[in-house]
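To fix ideas, we now present one chain and its tokenised fold:
***
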Amino acid sequence: MSWTSQAEMVADTTELGGAGREMCGRCRATGLQPNAYAPLAGATAALGTWPLTGGGDGYAPFASDRDLVEELLDFGIAILGHYDRVVALVQTIAMRRAELLAWIASATRGDPVKEWRAEVTDCAAALEVLTGVPGRLRAAARRVAAAPAALGDTYAEVYRLVTGGRVLPHNGRWLTGEAAGRAT
């Protein structure tokens, strides 16, 4: 497989963006204020996917606040894992290109210089494909890292929910409205 083909595969963040869109839809279906999940929407947009289509219809609400936070953490981990794969490929391609250029510079008669130059061209194209991808992934990861603070602000602004006609349970999870269970 060519370096460019590998770069195109790794540069594709469609799957990650789809996961972010799904989470945004679930946040909206749960009834969260848009400002509470704005960092998640920003991360999804940084991945090249429009964060929400429709009004949250067709998405399952989060069963609990814990489910939301766990899925958010998993999303952040997935973004960082993808970032690591992209950076590793960039480093590998850059090292291979430098190696090929050194071989070309010291080539002797009979060396496969034509093939080496073709691979250098492939390396250059692959690096061009990957330009900007690490930055987009870093931006998405920063946005996801900001999400807990935004959610915390929402928890602190429970008053908005109450004044908006929502009911908060006493001693329970406000996100789902369920009563708190007894500690075991």
